[in-house]
Design brief:
Distance between the termini: 16 Å
Largest sheet: 8 strands, mixed
Order of helices and strands: EHEEEHHEHEHHEHEHEHEHEHEHEHEHHH
Number of helices: 16
Radius of gyration: 23 Å
Shape: globular
Structural class: alpha/beta
Oligomer: single chain
Strand content: 15-25%
Helix content: 25-40%
Number of strands: 14
Strand order of the largest sheet: 3-4-2-1-5-6-7-8
């Protein structure tokens, strides 16, 4: 089978995020399929963009995947430069369609670039070759900039995106959504219910089977805390406004003089503010911010915690569901989780692997921390194992990629 995966921001293990197209395509190629990923040469998400050497397009083979890079201009922020980058990619999909399909007549064309405008060139290619057309939804556009960015539904850009989204739902053979509760919204915009399929984000099991460093990162510090009898609750990842970490720090006020420590590890624009907040509140003995660790050190760090915290600001958009990558990391680490997100789905409750609370509520966080710290180790371990089993069954990329392959075999 020849599969064309169009994703403006697609990355790889060499380039960094976005990883989902790479993880899917690698497994499809290993199953004997020919896979082409069409992507822009520039993305703000990647840690390293390909060197086009002045060329308009470039092909590259990565782990059996044929990458077809379309030259895109560098941009910063969400201004005119980013729009030019989008337009250059869309133009390239039209202009180089024959070259993109040179590996063989596509049997499946997937339009997967966060914004929905790539549906137009994707459908043109699908019609030309008689291929199945799939629209893959990462975020709901233009609902995201409307609800999160405050943009008017009557803004010309939003109206353009709304027309494209409606077109996606009306003309795709199937819609694969990362958001488990988005079906009703999509049906309201023209999708037939039977065309909705949820395939969420996932993890790579092999990443968790690598030998851990000896000693692991922060070993001396965390061992000392454990030896002193502390119950360690960790947060790892970005320190941004959306992560609702103010309430996590403030929970420390209700945990003073208790054998519970709240540990935050990661980078982000809010980190300095949170460090100062700990000082201002006099919580140095209860809350501590540690320097970020490398991605491959995360499993060994999580393994040393007793429980883990994930939270997000309350946002109406989360009614369609969430699947934070850090939550899947937490569950793979087999640790109990404090889940402070108001969303249409709750993986922690589904798996029975922790405590679910309202977001941005420091009292609820403190009470959840106290409850977990009071449980027997055997109960905590069982809770953590429930989470790991759930992820391996529902969110491992071997499972997800096969579920996607099954879609390709469906009638259209």
């Amino acid at each position: 089978m020849n599969i064309l995966y169009i994703n403006h921001y697609a990355g790889s293990d060499r380039h960094g995020m976005e990883f989902r197209p790479y993880f899917m395509a690698k497994r499809w190629a290993q199953a004997g399929n020919n896979v082409t990923i069409a992507a822009s040469s520039y993305s703000h998400l990647r840690t390293k963009n390909p060197d086009m050497q002045g060329k308009k397009t470039m092909e590259q083979n990565i782990d059996g995947i044929r990458y077809f890079w379309i030259n895109g201009s560098e941009y910063h922020g969400n201004g005119v430069g980013r729009i030019k980058n989008m337009l250059s990619f869309l133009h390239g999909l039209y202009r180089y369609g024959h070259e993109i399909a040179a590996q063989g007549k596509p049997d499946v064309v997937i339009a997967s670039s966060t914004y929905p405008l790539d549906i137009y060139p994707a459908r043109k290619l699908a019609k030309k070759y008689g291929a199945m057309l799939i629209y893959e939804v990462h975020d709901l556009w233009p609902l995201s900039p409307i609800e999160l960015g405050g943009m008017s539904p009557r803004h010309p850009y939003i109206m353009l995106m709304q027309a494209a989204e409606n077109y996606c739902y009306q003309h795709s053979d199937y819609v694969v959504s990362l958001l488990p509760k988005a079906q009703e919204h999509m049906v309201d915009h023209g999708l037939k219910p039977e065309k909705f399929i949820c395939i969420p984000n996932g993890i790579v099991k092999a990443d968790w089977e690598q030998p851990m460093a000896n000693p692991p990162v922060y070993y001396d510090k965390l061992k000392q805390y454990h030896d002193e009898g502390y119950f360690l609750i960790g947060y790892t990842g970005a320190h941004g406004i959306a992560n609702a970490l103010n309430s996590f720090v403030e929970a420390g006020e209700q945990l003073r003089d208790q054998k519970i420590k709240l540990l935050l590890v990661g980078p982000g624009p809010e980190r300095d503010h949170l460090i100062q907040k700990v000082i201002d509140l006099g919580l140095e003995d209860t809350v501590e911010l540690l320097e970020p660790v490398k991605r491959n050190q995360v499993p060994e760090l999580l393994n040393q915690m007793d429980a883990l915290y994930v939270g997000l600001q309350r946002q109406p958009l989360f009614r369609f569901g969430v699947s934070p990558n850090k939550l899947m990391d937490y569950m793979m680490a087999a640790k109990p989780v404090i889940f402070a997100i108001d969303a249409g789905n709750d993986m922690v409750a589904d798996a029975g692997c922790g405590i679910s609370i309202e977001p941005e509520d420091s009292t609820a966080i403190a009470q959840a921390a106290q409850k977990l710290a009071s449980l027997p180790k055997e109960q905590l371990q069982a809770m953590g194992e429930h989470g790991r089993e759930y992820i391996l069954e529902n969110n491992e990329y071997d499972v997800l990629s096969q579920k996607f392959l099954d879609v390709f075999k469906m009638p259209y």
